[in-house]
Amino acid sequence: MNRERLAVEVAGIRMATPIMGASGTFGFGMEYEDFLDLADVGAVVSKGITPKPRAGNGGVRIAETPAGMLNSIGLENPGIEAFCRDILPEAAKLPTAFIVNISAGTAEEYGEMAQMLDVDGVDGIEVNISCPNVKEGGIVFGTDPVQAARVTREVKQHTKKPVIVKLSPNVTDITQMARAVEDAGADAVSLINTLTGMVIDVEKRQPLLGNITGGLSGPAVKPIALRMVYQAAHAVSIPVIGMGGIQTGEDVAAFLLAGASAVEIGAENFANPRAVVEAAEGLDAYLERQGIEYARDLTGALEL
After folding, report:
1. Which listed residue (84, 107, 131, 220) is catalytic?
2. Is 61:71 a contact under the CB 8 Å cutoff?
3. Buried b (16+ CB within 10 A) or exposed e, 158-196
4. What number of CA atoms fall less than 13 Å from residue 40's CA on the CB side?
5. What is the pTM (predicted TM-score) of this model?
6. pLDDT of 119-129, one tens digit each?
7. Is 131 an annotated catalytic residue?
8. Residues ≥6 apart with Cβ < 8 Å to 1
9. pLDDT for 163-218, tens place per residue?
């Protein structure tokens, strides 16, 4: 793998490759050390962290679907204090960039978490805004541009780290959301988060997932993700990080051509724990085959 050819810098974060392990699918990075060299991973995006510990949802949490999977984990995590005390010191030793994904119920909580993470060992913060806004009566931050901007401003006011806002696909106009968080100071956007779906056990005549609905990810969502990345990249001037159904180096190339500066691989990690590195190797081979000098040269190079 030619790291010089693959290296990128996104929102000030230097990465060995443009391929990251997506939040919720890559643990805290250490879990994958037996399967690959983390120095070959562009960045690790941590499991979602919340202000307080969460036990997650009850019942069935994951269901396989044609060309994908549904999950309703419910953000099970140890909470920000335990994360900073017990996990971050180890994650900081990883030979790759480490980005912390955060979720909260109010804009103020997002700001408080960002301040706690404004420390060595954290290379960036990915802000998951697909969470209920408790204070505003259940509005989801990720579907309201005003609330999304409010969260973004709150986070930016409390950290010097690059702030990446993770956008929900469950909206009418993804460009409106991307522009809103850019105007509020986001350093980059990442998309797409999962699409809302459900599975029904027809024999029991009941929802299969304990939470009834869950987030759909995997190859089934790739065409939607590509479309939204393309739209967002043409709507904002900040970097776009793409995700959704990526498996191969050619998939990565497609997202870069659509306008992404980097990508995250998620669901595929469950099927192949070496997916992030194998996709990087595939991208390297693609660049060699196409006679393209650097991976960054692909960003937005779609010919119309």
Report:
1. 131
2. yes
3. bbebbbbbbbbbbbeebeebbbbbbebebbbbbbbbbbe
4. 18
5. 0.97
6. 999 999 999 99
7. yes
8. 17, 40, 277, 280, 281, 284
9. 999 999 999 999 999 999 999 999 999 999 999 999 999 999 999 999 999 999 99
